[in-house]
């Protein structure tokens, strides 16, 4: 099976950008447009990594991360979570890490940074390694 990446993001432009960038490297993108859908997708799909927007229309990304880490689905204790947010406020990175995220990326999304951060956890299916 392919390498599945779940992106929890309410902004369609960011979703499309990340979809194109990751599919170009051979990953399969699973999409969720809000926090509740994201938690549900993490529990129902086989996901190898999660990209998590922090500003979501229902529950925020911190709460999403806490619910994923607290899920009864054991694999979700370990699945890598990369927080992605426009909030440059001091303390956001620490809050994301405290909520269970592994690393933190700032918006606007830089494609090369995205590839590098994702590949640090899950090798690209289209690159030799
Ligand atoms: Mn958002």
Question: How would you explain this protein's 3D organization?
Answer:
The protein has helices at residues 12-24, 35-44, 61-69, 92-98, 111-121; strands spanning 4-8, 28-32, 49-53, 81-85, 103-106. It is an alpha/beta fold and 129 residues long. The protein has one domain: Rossmann fold. The longest helix is centred in the N-terminal third of the chain and has 13 residues, at 12-24. The model has no long low-confidence stretch (mean pLDDT 94). The site of manganese (II) ion has 5 residues, from loops.
Number of strands: 5
The stretches of 5 or more residues where confidence is low (pLDDT under 50) are none
Number of helical segments?
5
What structural class do helix, strand and pairing data support?
alpha/beta
Enter the CATH topology name. Answer: Rossmann fold
Architecture per CATH nomenclature, i.e. the level-2 architecture: 3-Layer(aba) Sandwich
Please summarize the sheet with the most strands.
5 strands, parallel
């Amino acid at each position: 099976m392919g390498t599945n990446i779940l992106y929890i993001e309410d902004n369609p432009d960011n979703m499309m950008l990340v979809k194109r960038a990751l599919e170009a490297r051979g990953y399969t993108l699973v999409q969720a447009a809000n926090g509740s859908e994201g938690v549900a997708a993490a529990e129902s799909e086989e996901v190898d990594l999660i990209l998590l927007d922090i500003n979501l229309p229902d529950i925020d990304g911190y709460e999403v991360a806490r619910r994923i880490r607290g899920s009864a689905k054991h694999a979700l204790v370990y699945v890598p979570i990369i927080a992605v947010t426009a909030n440059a406020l001091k303390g956001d990175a620490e809050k994301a890490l405290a909520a269970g995220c592994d690393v933190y990326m700032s918006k606007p999304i830089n494609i090369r940074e995205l590839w590098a951060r994702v590949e640090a956890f899950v090798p690209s299916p289209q690159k030799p390694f």
